[in-house]
Amino acid sequence: MTSLSPVIVTLQGNLMTPAAQFGRRLREIRRGHKLKIGQLAEKADTGVKHLGRVERGEKKPSFELIIALAAAMSVSPAKFFEFDSPQADPRVLRKQLDKFLSRRDAKELQQIQRVLAAFFDS
Fold first, then answer.
1. Can you tell me the distance from the alpha carbon of 14 to that of 8, in angstroms, rounded to the nearest whole number?
2. Was domain 8-83 assigned CATH 1.20.120.1760?
3. DSSP 8-state symbol, 8
4. Is residue 15 within 8 Å of 5, Cβ to Cβ?
5. CA-based radius of gyration for the chain
6. Are 3 and 46 contacting, i.e. CB atoms less than 8 angstroms apart?
7. Of 4, 19, 81, 112, which residue is least crowded by CB atoms under 10 Å?
8. Which residue has the higher pLDDT, 76 or 94?
9. Rounded to 5°, angle at Cα 72 from 8 and 67
10. Is the pLDDT of residue 73 over 60?
11. Per-residue pLDDT tens for 49-72?
12. Whole-angstrom Cα distance, residue 92 to residue 111?
């Protein structure tokens, strides 16, 4: 039996695994603390190369590393899992709408425009 990892699609159309989401969030938090990757690696007692791979989503962090990273930056480990929903990003939504609308003919676009006008102008 195979387990599938949930993925999200980025604005560039790339797939992002949970490991990549974790790594992106880790990098955001590290940069927010104005730490260089080497400084965080030293504080968390891990290798710079390994931490770089975690930040790029190439490696999955162990539970122990997650705890060590959180302690090194004085944050809750839960902070690393606060992923932004791609559906909440207006750029992603616009891209999805553009793709949807690009497949419509003039008559359908007029209908869509009337529905949207009625919905938002009322």
1. 8
2. no
3. E
4. no
5. 20
6. no
7. 4
8. 76
9. 60
10. yes
11. 999 999 999 999 999 999 999 999
12. 23
CA dihedral 88, 93, 95, 99 (to 10 degrees): 140
Residue linked to tokens 């007692």: 45
Q: Phi/psi of residue 15, each to 5°?
A: -85, 140
Residue type, 55: E
Cβ-based neighbours of 19, under 8 Å, separated by 6 or more = 5, 54, 57, 58, 59, 60
**Residue 59: left (phi > 0), alpha (psi -120 to 50), or beta?**
beta
Question: At 15, is the secondary structure helix, strand, or coil?
Answer: strand
> Helices marked H in the chain — which ranges?
18-32, 37-43, 48-55, 63-73, 90-102, 106-120
